[in-house]
Amino acid sequence: MKYSNQDGFTIIETILFLAITGLLVAAILIGSGNSINTQRYRDSVSSFQSILQQQYSDVNNVNHDQATQIDCEGEYYNRGQSDCVLLGRLITTTDGRTINVQKVAGCDCSVTEATPLLNDVDVFRTEAGGYDTYVSGVMREKYDMEWGSALVNSDGSPMQFSILILLSPNSGMIRTFIDPDSVVYSPTSTHSSTSVQSMITEDALVNQSLTMCVSSNGLFTGPKSAVRIGANSTGPSGIETLGGGDASNGCN
């Protein structure tokens, strides 16, 4: 009689096989998860850049919902039939997570024949003989940063800033005024001219740029990317992304 000597896996061999297989599966899942989180972070940076670029396009195209009124000292925006004209957008954040966009109008009720001689700073300032520039409190748009990301300073604290994008009635050029450290106008207010006109200065136009570090808030552990608006930006091309590998972006 012939006996067949066919041995199976031992218990130890089976345990080792299952352990190695489990480690390989875990490594694949972790790698896939990191890849997904990295892509989500990149999408949040790209989406924020697109939001800013869209504001320039809307200002340039005088995009306005005719059904919504802009208050200008009792006047209301009605193209061609009012002293209240649409001038641009104010972009602010108080916590780095929610981006507030409000439309800006100007009343030319006191504009004189000398107004066309004003430069692209004074034309927006009442005391210089230009437009009485107002923020519309009733026309607000709100954007939340995607995937839990947030705009932070280089030290990681939440950002607060104001970006004023205006279309000059004189030159037809878009002008950008930046306050990199504070919110000049509360998104919950209903009407204001003094606060927003305080940031319409030559310094805010020519010298101020703004670098906004994008924190993933734990989504992944790689270096932060940043979105930057250059000083005196005149269009969407003035918005650029500084990659996480770029040490010059100043983001830790």
Note the topology.
Elements: H1 11-60, E1 71-72, E2 75-76, E3 84-93, E4 98-107, E5 132-144, E6 150-152, E7 161-167, E8 174-179, E9 191-192, H2 194-197, H3 202-206, E10 210-215, E11 225-229, E12 239-242
Antiparallel strand pairs: 1-2, 3-4, 3-7, 4-5, 5-9, 6-10, 7-8, 10-11, 11-12
Describe the structure in your own words.
With 252 residues, the chain is of the alpha+beta class. Helix content is 23%, strand content 28%. It is built from three helices and twelve strands. The protein has a six-stranded antiparallel beta sheet with strand order 8-7-3-4-5-9. A four-stranded antiparallel beta sheet has the order 6-10-11-12, with helices on one face. A two-stranded antiparallel sheet has the order 1-2. A hairpin with a 2-residue loop joins strand 1 and strand 2. The radius of gyration is 27 Å and the shape is elongated.
How are strands sequenced across the largest beta sheet? Answer: 8-7-3-4-5-9
List low-pLDDT spans: 64-68, 74-81
**Count of DSSP H/I helices:** 3
How large a portion of the residues is in β-strands, by DSSP E?
A: 25-35%
H/E element order:
HEEEEEEEEEHHEEE
Provide a short characterization of the protein structure.
This protein is an alpha+beta fold and 252 residues long. Helix content is 23%, strand content 28%. The protein has three helices and twelve strands.
What key attributes describe this structure?
single chain; 252 residues; alpha+beta; 6-stranded antiparallel β-sheet; 4-stranded antiparallel β-sheet; 12 strands; 23% helix
